[in-house]
Amino acid sequence: MFFAARHLRAALRAYASGEGAPSQAVPVALPGEGEGSLESDVRQLIRLSEALTAQF
Kindly report the CA angle at 25 between 15 and 28, in degrees rounded to 5? Predict the structure, then answer.
């Protein structure tokens, strides 16, 4: 998840500096195999949030 946090942070910096955004969506949190529930999505987003916080 730390890779996703780094990628997201770099993308936000690029966007803030005026660089164009990609024309296609890039997933930042994907549930594991067999995990298609809302709870698994929430767990992934919590992990992403924790990874972003840990990098300060």
Answer: 85
Q: What does the pLDDT look like over 7-37, one tens digit per residue?
A: 888 888 998 999 987 788 777 666 666 667 7
Tokens of 6: 């780094």
Q: Could you count the other beta carbons within 10 Å of the beta carbon of residue 48?
A: 17
Count of CA atoms in the C-beta half-sphere (13 A) of 29: 18
Which two structure tokens, joined as six digits, stand for 37? 């529930």
What letter represents residue 3's amino acid?
F
* pTM flag (> 0.90): no
